Every structure is written in C-alpha cells, then in structure tokens.
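May I ask for whichever protein you like with its backbone structure tokens?
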Amino acid sequence: MAEHLRVATLIGDVVASRRAPDRTRMQGSLREALEAVNAAVPATQPLDVTVGDEFQGAYGSVAAAARAALLLRLTLLPGVDTRYGLGWGGISVFDADRALPSQDGPGWWAAREAIEHVDATAGRRGRARGMATWFVDHGATAWPAGADAPPAAPAVAGAVNGLLLLRDELVAQQSDRARRLLLGWLRGRQQQELAADEGITQSAVSQQLARSGAYAVRDALDALDGVAAWSS
C-alpha cells in the first residue's frame, strides 16, 4: 500500500558533467559530499544518486531542503558546481524497501520543473549569473488522485526564490577561502578551528565572514526556517 506524504523535494545535478576530465573522481567526490550533507541535515529521504550525475532527496521543510542544497554546493565547489530544483507537494511512496523508493506525485513534479527552470535560465544575458537554485510550490495540487486539495500555502514562493537568487549570486562571487569558511561556519565549527585550517588568525576569519556576506546567508536561512508554510 502506498504511503502518502507532503514533503520538500530536492533534485540536483552536476553542471557540465560530461566535460569533467575525470568522471570517476567526480562521482566519488559527489558521493562523499552527499554523505556529509546527509549527516548534517536530517532528511525524510536522504540524498542519493539516481541516474548518471543526478541526485535527489526529500525533507520535512523547504528550509531544510534549501540548507542541504547550499551545504552540498559549498562542499563540492570549486572543483564541481551543481544546480538544484526544490519543490513542495504531495508524494506517494510505492515501494519503500528499495534503496531508492519508487515514488510519484506533485512534490517531485515541482522539483523537476524547478531544476528545468534553472537549466533554461541560469547564466543567460540579463539574468543572475550565479543562479543555481529555484523553488516551485505544488502544495495545493490534490494528491493522490481523488483526494481533496489542501489549502493553498501563503503566496510567498516568490520571496523564497528572491532569497535563493541573492544567496546563490553572493556565493558565486565569493573567493574559495570565503566559501570554505562559510561552509565550516554553517556546519557549526568554531572560528578558532577554521583559522587553524586556513593558517590565519581568528580575527581574520571573523572579518572574512563579515565581508563575504556569511552573516546574511545564515540569517536568511534562519528566517526561512521560521516560515510556517511548507513544513510537515
């Protein structure tokens, strides 16, 4: 019997993966990064590779999915860049015993629509060059077939995408060191630890975090986490 859930879905893939000089090494880096993010962000369905260089996972809230996408991107940069589609909606799990459960539903359709939007839009002239993530809300779509449609979520999907656009553009403009510091800091490491890793002072770490916009990224994630909509 199928299990019906309302979740935040995430579909991601590697940018320009076919041009990678060493695809075996790239795949190994991707799997290690997925394991690290799964340990850091609790998931309804942990991130896993599906086909080729695509991966997916599911979360109890859009905030958790957005956090997982950012941590994964920061973990893989600068060697590997990734893009993400986030969705919200109902899903049905038909075979939970499989390593990657058989599923369907508006939640997954939303994530697919979102990543296709990133693929079609990112980097185009007149667009945000750093765009890597998009969100689509299908939460008001009735699922399973014949069920009553749930109440529509507050119309703030545009605000979520505004946050994602600005966050991704900021990360795209950061130096490699700034990204490493942001990643370590978001994962709860102390500034003294980060300073030791980089061979700089704790004061230099603090200044770098401030200059690179790290505090804004943290506060934006925390603000999204406080939005009641799109949480199970």
Summary: The chain has two domains: 3-151, 174-227. The chain is about 45% helix and 20% strand. Helices lie at 23-40, 62-76, 106-121, 157-173, 176-186, 191-198, 202-212, 214-225. The radius of gyration is 18 Å.
